[in-house]
Amino acid sequence: MTYPASEVVEEPALFAPAPEVAPELREFWDATSEGRLLLRRCTVCDEAIWYPRPVCPFCHSTRTVWEQASGRGHIYTYSVVRRGTGGYADAPYVLAYVELAEGPRVMTNIVDCDTDAVEIGQAVELVFHRTAEGTALPRFRPAR
Length: 144
Known about the structure:
Layout: E1 8-9, H1 26-33, E2 38-42, E3 48-49, E4 64-68, E5 72-81, E6 93-100, E7 105-110, E8 123-130, E9 136-142
Parallel strand pairs: 1-8
Antiparallel strand pairs: 2-3, 2-4, 5-6, 5-8, 6-7, 8-9
């Protein structure tokens, strides 16, 4: 299924370090720069896989394919970081696990929110934060 691209914020308020891009993940990172989140799905056991990798962690099959995620999910759990370091010194910010509509849980940040108003179970939507090297980090904000 194809979904519309999510917003890519060119100058995010939260630090956005550039990832190290392994050759087998080039397609994933190219998609993030276009505002699309790709997941791997196993064609044998039909599980969606996060983090992206060529071998299914559920049945060990190598028969996996890329598919676009919807960009929707809910907060599974979170923590408000009130004392950051390095590039994240501008705390507070929210570190969370978001359960995607497709099933996998993704460690990410909740952005564009009141850190004291975040709740477990809250609906969120995908937004990307551009890095200095052109890729973009998938993050989430409260659903609009």
